[in-house]
Design brief:
The structure holds two protein chains of two kinds. Chain A is 27% helix and 31% strand. Chain A is built from eight helices and 14 strands. In chain B, 31% of the residues lie in helices and 21% in strands. In chain B, the strands form four sheets. In chain B, strands 1, 2, 3, 4, 5, 6, 24, 25 and 26 form a nine-stranded mixed sheet that branches. The chains are: A alpha/beta, B alpha/beta.
Chain lengths: 297, 567
Amino acid sequence: MIVDILAGYLGAGKTSYINRILSHADDLWHSGSRQRLAILVNDFGEINIDRQRIVAQQGQMIDIAGGCICCTFGSDLVEGLQTVLARSAEFDRLMIECSGVALPGAVKGTVRLCMPDAVIKTTALIHLLRIEQQLDDQYIGDTVRLQLQQADAWLGTHADLIAGEAAETAFLDLIGKRLKRLLASKRVIELSLNKHRYHQHELSNPKPKWRSFMVEQRNVSSLDALKQRFMQWQHSNQDPERESQGKSRLERVKGYLLQGVDDYYWVEWANGRLKIEATPLIKSSDELGLVVIELLL
Amino acid sequence: MLKALTGAIFLSSSEALNFQSKGDDLTMIEIFPAKRIITMDQGNPHADAVAVLDGRILGAGSLEAMKSLGPHRVNDQFIDQVLMPGFVEGHCHVSEGAFWAYTYTGFFPRSDPQGNLWQGCSSLEAVVDRLKQADLSKQVISAWGFDPIYFKDQSRMTRHDLDRVSTTLCVGVMHASGHIMNVNTLALDRAGLMRKGIEHPGIVLDHEGLPSGELRGPDAMTMVGRFVGFDREAMAGDEAAMWRFASLCVRAGVTTATDLANLLPDDAVNMMLRVTASDRYPVRIVAMRRFQAISPAALIERALELKAKSSDRLRLGAIKAFADGSIQGFSARLRWPGYYNGMPNGLWYTAPEQLTALYVGALANGLQVHTHTNGDEAIDLALRCLEQALRKQAASDHRFVLQHCQMGDEAQFRKMKALGMAVNLFPNHHFYWGDQHRSITLGPHRAARMNACASALRAGLMMGIHSDAPVTPLGPLFTAWAAVNRLTASGVVLGQTECIGVDEALYAITLGAAQTLHLDQEIGSIAVGKHADFVVLDQDPYEIPAKDLNQLSVCATVQAGRVFASA
């Protein structure tokens, strides 16, 4: 069983995402993906289910044409999971919409408890235009940070509000600058951008377009070695230090490095060009390290 | 349906209540003379007698004056006792009645609905022994109130302890906090958890890597709850639980009580309407719909629907929202400097935008919202949300209440006053968890300003105080004692400057609590026109030392003129 957990702050687009999936439930079934879906949502309030497509409704559970079932769980996730799992023979994939303040790590732990053998992926949805304000918010900032930190993948949303390629640039720059510290060391985050132009088969599984990870200060032996790594990567579309990761194009690099005792450098890679320039003292050692974004090929 | 599982047998009907039917003409004035009547009505603070007609107060004053009101009969059964307005419990849960279907295993002595005093269990052995006496012919053994933080030896209960109770029946023991549960091996097995390799913060593992039987937090507890009698359906309460709760109210002197966080589906509402309509039901219940699994707009619609269904003894329409969790569970949201022992900050239970949307909708429709806030950051947030909501939707005397509001400080109380709010504080915490708050969660300084009743009153707030039963026992006199004395279980005074006087505490459990429920026109004092709701005490609370306030005995209650003996 595959379980997708959709997290992200209120307004990030989780319900819209679910609604798009529901509106394509028939197509999903017929498009060859042959995946029968069960969806657990907080409440039916904003969920658009065409009445004509409701096959049956019993309590918290709605059966929708196309083999999809939708269930509400309120704040009692375990009870919701138990209700859905009683019908586990009827679906192959489970999608869970978290509340706007839920932490994906906790939800994942609970799902793992109920479904020890499931393949579980947590995706944090990021409202591209609001995320910075949310991260700065006195009250919810730390919750939003934890949501991003704990997720396996990030999905940028509301990209349609930013014209064309600018959305991609905005998303990647956001990750390079603002979300840098949320990439815990040695973690690779899958990145994708929701432009509302999905192919049907992708709907229940947003395909990662990019991946992002951190190169820690301590893992950079010298600027020359770094330069060589990136050049080789560009040449072969393969990171020489992560050969098992498959083909990818080096898309973006941003960050500060310290060389010697107090020589700080700004390192940036964009559009196939590497820029390394000396820079004055940085604010804190937390800023050291590079964010790398690769385009999956 | 779950039946009583303990040695004691509970009556599941009105027979549980000692209702003294008058059998007289209801149109005749009934006069209750008493040794003293404390009215809480500032214009007429004391009386010798109170006259009742049609369940309402016709007058309070001298016996002669009452007799002059018209044809009457004198009921002198309280002639040697003291009358006060019936106590108003502004924050409790009817599920206290459901819990008494299970075995009580708490550290502190506690009275059951029949008035039997259950001794405290002060060691693991005492708990195991008590569970061994539970009725083993039943299908499960369920217990509650377990409170090991006070045990001398700090050993933790494991499934092996409970396996000594039974290996053929599932055994479950709920902790006093309601946030932790211990179960036996069979229960873990039934829930599919008797396996290695579990990684979940709520499942404590033993040295072999198997679950120890201690389950923390709602997720882990729900996994096993239904096998040990603690499923949601059982805890939601049924008729029997409603009657047991009523008995507890009579013994505690409560004539109006809240059910503060009910999901209130139609079945439950119909059951509650039916039960409270009985002329033997002794309590007015104020039940609030919990903001959960529903959008703000849908909740407003539902609350209006509920409000229209209200009866005299079942008041519906108010809403309960949650901003954060609990301090002792480290899920409350704290401002700098955070938890004393360095635990990370707690959790938000509702997104602020949703709280604001709920407030706007409720203000526009004249619905009252009670918001659970424990930590000071959660209080800040609730205030900000209401301030934003009031900018969009001005409203007068909305009287939104912050419930618990345990870490509220002076500035926050002033802000609440300015915004037109009321507060309901939780002084019982000083006694039950005050020592832990001092040494673990908040440290000595902030623990000393918890439930700062004196500051709240200085800020001019309408204030109630509460038990949150079943979290702590239902008992407004105990709550008043806790607000006056602020003693912890170990005997430390927690913040002398926040102690309030006996008069202020008695006001808080009567008219103050009534104000927080927007019911002060109807109840909370003995004044003409109000419901004839009284508590009958064996002594005058002003005549005994303040430290003995919790020793007063409730002899009876009178609710809408009907007398209910508490023994």
